[in-house]
Design goal:
Layout: H1 5-26, H2 31-35, H3 42-49, H4 56-103, H5 107-119, E1 127-131, H6 134-147, E2 156-162, H7 171-178, E3 189-191, E4 206-211, H8 215-234
Parallel strand pairs: 2-3
Antiparallel strand pairs: 1-4, 2-4
Length: about 240
């Protein structure tokens, strides 16, 4: 009986590859990893391995490899994000330095920086300024409109007062004085207090200016504060 060796050799190689694929799978390799070493179609590999039961230890190896790959991917993503954030911060700081150089001789520029240093929020991701003095609030609004891309119509406001003064409704007064819309005001916060006598008759609450999506502006302002300190040290 004649046997065609040209047929037997590929068949023998195929059997060897199947055995190799099974062994690799048992050692915890993924389909993609097996296909790098065994030159068959993915459909063929699936057919070979579909009925192959894996022991608990083999499954554990597969899961460990999978977790390691996920962890490495997350580490790479974190590294890329940190690098991107650092580049953005570098760009913002350079812009802040250029702006400071351009306006360092303008009193309003320095006044706004000093006021924010004293009364502005510095530990969050939003530019916020709080005060009870309408004059100080007005100066900060002028500063924002002069040295940033924001207009007062872009801003948000929130009034803080004490529970015994709820009936006074000073929101309308603040809106009229500042020339802003009613919908720019968030719900007023009334703080509880044991004091029933109003010690300051002219007290109209404490107003907070909020600049939305202002992490970049906050970083710029912090940079201006540091530059202002250095500026007056030299003076």
């Amino acid at each position: 009986m004649y046997v065609n060796r040209d047929i037997l050799i590929p068949m023998k190689r195929l059997v060897q590859e199947k055995l190799q694929a099974i062994e690799l799978r048992k050692n915890g390799h993924s389909y993609a990893q097996i296909l790098e070493q065994v030159s068959v179609a993915k459909s063929t590999l699936s057919l070979w391995l579909k009925d192959l039961p894996l022991t608990e230890s083999e499954l554990a190896v597969l899961q460990k490899i999978k977790n390691q790959r996920i962890s490495k991917g997350r580490l790479r993503a974190v590294a890329v994000n940190q690098e991107s954030r650092a580049e953005k911060q570098k760009t913002v700081i350079n812009m802040a330095k250029n702006t400071f150089t351009s306006h360092k001789n303008e009193p309003l520029f320095h006044t706004g920086i000093a006021l924010y240093w004293a009364e502005g929020a510095k530990r969050n991701e939003m530019w916020q300024f709080v005060n009870t003095d309408i004059r100080m609030i007005t100066v900060m609004l002028s500063w924002l409109e002069t040295y940033t891309a924001y207009d007062r119509s872009d801003l948000g406001f929130r009034l803080y007062s004490h529970e015994p003064y709820r009936h006074e409704h000073w929101e309308g007064w603040w809106q009229k004085q500042l020339g802003v819309r009613t919908d720019q005001f968030k719900k007023t916060v009334y703080k509880p207090t044991t004091v029933t006598t109003k010690k300051r008759p002219d007290y109209k609450g404490c107003l907070r200016i909020e600049v939305p999506k202002s992490a970049q502006l906050l970083l710029q302002t912090k940079c201006w504060i540091n530059l202002q300190v250095e500026y007056y040290k030299k003076e």
